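Message: I would value a second opinion on how I read folds in token form. Give me a protein, with the fold worked out from its sequence. Write it directly below this note and I will take it from there.
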Amino acid sequence: MASSTLPDVPEGLCFHCLQPLPEDGGYPVTLHNKTYSVCCYGCQAVAETIAQQNLLHFYQYRDTSNPLQVPLVPEELQQLTAYDDEQLQQQFTRSEDGLRSINLSIDGMTCSACAWLIEQHLSRLAGVQQVQVNATTERVAIRWQPDAVKLSEILQAIAELGYRALPFQAANQEQEFKQRRRYFVTRLGVAGLATMQVMMLAIGLYFGVVSDLDAELRQFMWWISLFMATPVLLYSAQPFYISAIRSIQAGQPNMDVPVTFALLSAYGASAYATFINEGEVYFESVAMFTFFLLVGRYFELLARQKAVSAAANLVKLLPAIAQREIANGEYESVAVNRLQIGDVIQVLPGATIPADGELLSKSAGVNESILTGESRLVNKYQHETVLAGSINQNQAIRIKVSAIQQQTVLASIIELQDLALSRKPKLARVAERMASKFVVRILMLAAATFLIWTIIDPAEAFWVTLSVLVATCPCALALAAPTAVTGAIHKLNKSGILLRNADVLQILPDVKTVFVDKTGTLTTGEFTLQQLHVYKEHADEITVKALAQALENHSEHPLAAPLRHLTEARESVADVQNEAGYGLQANWRTDGHVTPVRIGSLRFIQQWHPTFSPKLTSAQVFLATSQHVLAEMQVGDKLRHDTQATIAAMQAAGIEVIMLTGDRLELAEQIAEQLNIKHVFANLLPADKLDKLTSAQIDGPVAMIGDGLNDGPVLAQADVSITFGHAADLARTAADVVLLRNQFSALNQFSEITSKARKILRQNILWALIYNIGILPVAMAGFVTPYIAAIGMSLSSLIVLLNSLRLYR
């Protein structure tokens, strides 16, 4: 039986995982009547499970000397780990179509070779459907079948490769970056101090300041240099060794392979010369090379942090406590992660809404800037949806919770950002493959250089070869694409534009044809019922309104919105079927009878009544039973205020704009005439839209802008597909780009950022290639010393980083 006390951990560390606690002190967990602090809800739940299973001896006998090697759960829970608990998984997983998805933080990932290794290893697990590793954010997105493989088995598979994986907690990301910064800063400090000391001695030796010293004193200075360079080699350069070993393990040698070889070779040869007191030493090159490489990695880390911190800040702004309604109109304070769907919560003025839900109060004014970047007040009315992260502005409101934690719109936005960062554009993938192949060729050329110089001048062969390895290290080429892509995604996110497919950065500037939907895309989608004609010989107006209202409550089409609140009267419909591009069909139950009924387009109604001709020439919505037409309705819409200027700018840039709509031709032509759109295709079904777009793709890439349920197929087919934040779920799922602000003018900003990103991406790759190819013959000819090679290589990487940082302005 375990004793009544557990060993303490160092102050400021999580009692469970031994990682740093958040600045607010973390979360409490009670074990053996004593309260301990842990860093997140995950650790809290695992610790509670360990206590419930009477396994507290896990904490008493574990080895805490190396926090990164401490197991997350006892051996007894390896097969039934706490991370498999359903309630716990709700906090960090999403469920869709029978699959679970999760974002894991990976500790120890350093490059794309690490990402490739993890992807290959996890893809072999039965039940794992998709693995996408993002080396930039050090995270992996996984979709799996929970009945085929457990989450604990996935975590164990990653651990087998030597990496530490935990469910990603955005609130802890800042702490993780601080830890990474500290990791680099300490190594930079050691390398910097050693470099200054060794360079002082080296300058004296190289430039003859102490040339009159005898051999013994010179050897003594060499020994001092050896002493100063050793901690640099063993401690500061450690990240490069780990990365090189893992890349070789993955079968994709990265830039750290020649770096490691150069460092070890230079140090080994210099140490040998010091021991025998003969030859040349380059300890200053070892220290300087390591220092400059670490500077580049440190700036790369800062660039990563800047790119991904926006998404993390979204979650950090959510409250930790919610006010849940209990009996008699009273409220209790509960942790947000304890909320359940169906709970009623109260949100006070100025407070942040903690979960998605249905507004129960009559109205509310909310600020959705955290989601859209637009700070203006948005008015919400009873039964409308309010989103987690919005700020309640006016009075206290009541909300019925409809989505919590990973199921909220905010969580899906963050998931889309992560997805964009994990998907590399084609040019980035090409650069990555070039860098990998370049490493192999460098090693081959270095071997050839050594053989040639062994014949020319054996004494210089080693040092010339070392200069080749250092000078041609493809660091700049490896950084060229990731830094540009993350910068572009960061800029787009700040502008309220979500990118799901990074290939868009490369494709969009080549698009010369743009197809646009009409309703809800060119127009506001805010419809009102302007005219209603009722065939009174078949139904009265109240019945028509109630029946239309009952049917349209099952539709997401923009035309349905103003028809959902027509009357207080109620009619009953059942077996509702949505016919994409046509309308809705159902069974109308009245007076004990069941009557088939339809609401939708003229074409849909004419399938039942072929000779019917509408009374209202501009009517778009028709209501009919299988026996009679009951009513026709004109639902009015208006152009978005920024559509005309945006379309004109696109046309001025040489882009042809074509309208595709399922609406009637006369209605579409009215809008097209206002926007000076020459080509209009109306009365189209989803399949017709798809045919038009596919035909146009023969002449080059095309873009599609739409937001309706029936736009899903054509959005999926387009080379670049764009939709709005208010769009139907199917449209958002199919689109490459989501404009959260729901403003058509955001297209101009998107095009501008995309063009600039592609330009910078190409500049980075071109510069990296010019430098690496240009320096190679110079280094092979023996005109570059090792320390000059280190400076040149580092400067080329810094140029790429600084060029990419232009995207952050």
